[in-house]
Write a structure and sequence with these properties.
Blueprint: E1 11-14, E2 17-20, H1 21-25, E3 29-35, H2 41-59, E4 62-68, H3 72-86, E5 94-96, H4 101-105, E6 130-134, E7 140-145, H5 154-170, E8 172-173, E9 184-186, H6 192-198, E10 204-207, E11 210-213
Parallel strand pairs: 3-4, 4-5
Antiparallel strand pairs: 1-2, 3-6, 6-7, 8-9, 9-11, 10-11
Helix pairs in contact: 2-3
Length: 217
């Protein structure tokens, strides 16, 4: 999978019923985040935290959906553990992928993987630790891949969403460590002539190729 490609569509069972992925996304943004196996410690903390901050994603018109290489029944049992240990049960669907179809479709597992998922260990599925941000156009905007031992920073994913949505709308780029409200950079695809029309007050330019303006509202 590469940034800019169309996210593969699929049908799958989830903890909230069967979905067709592209139809489920609709006109929203979406985050698909995957897990190597149910009842694993790091992922338990992640699923609980995503439930806690889901209102922040909803405020940004972003739907979130999990995936784990187990059955929907296992997911529902796991959800009880998540609520009891993290204080928040998943309030978003989790895809059941016991036949590895979605994991293989997205290149998270080799095409020749087969067999009973219950006989596989988390280490067997170690590559299923990805985050995909998908736009309303169904294109992949961002991919993050984490090792099993490092919990994902979903506050950072919120920051990334803010940057992706801002830059998609205004033809700007966000500099290092940017946060909402900070100055931004006029995209290189915008000529100086066009930039003068967009930013009649001008811009700061420590170099001709670094054109800094306040964040567009």
């Amino acid at each position: 999978m590469k940034i800019g490609e169309t996210a593969p569509d699929f049908e799958a069972d989830t903890t909230e019923g069967k979905i067709r992925f592209h139809d489920w996304i609709g006109s929203s943004w979406a985050i698909l985040f995957s897990h190597p196996k149910d009842f694993t410690p790091v992922c338990t903390t992640e699923l609980g935290y995503m439930a806690k901050i889901n209102p922040e994603f909803e405020r940004r018109n972003v739907k979130i959906i999990g995936l784990s290489v187990d059955s929907a029944g296992d997911h529902k049992g796991w959800a009880k553990d998540i609520e009891e240990t993290q204080g928040h049960a998943p309030n978003y669907p989790i895809i059941a992928d016991p036949e590895f179809k979605v994991s293989k479709l997205y290149g998270m597992l080799p095409a020749d993987v087969s067999g009973d998922p219950k006989k596989r260990t988390p280490a067997d599925n170690a590559t299923v630790r990805n985050v995909y941000v998908i736009g309303p156009d169904k294109k992949i905007k961002l991919i993050l891949v984490y090792p099993m031992t490092t919990g994902r920073n979903f506050d950072e994913v919120l920051r990334l969403i803010d940057s992706l949505q801002l830059t998609a709308k205004h033809q700007v780029a966000t500099p290092v460590n940017w946060k909402p409200g900070d100055d931004v950079i006029i995209a290189g695809s915008v000529s100086d002539e066009e930039a003068k029309k967009r930013y009649p007050a001008g811009w700061k330019a420590p170099r001709p190729y670094i054109r800094i303006v306040p964040q567009p509202q």
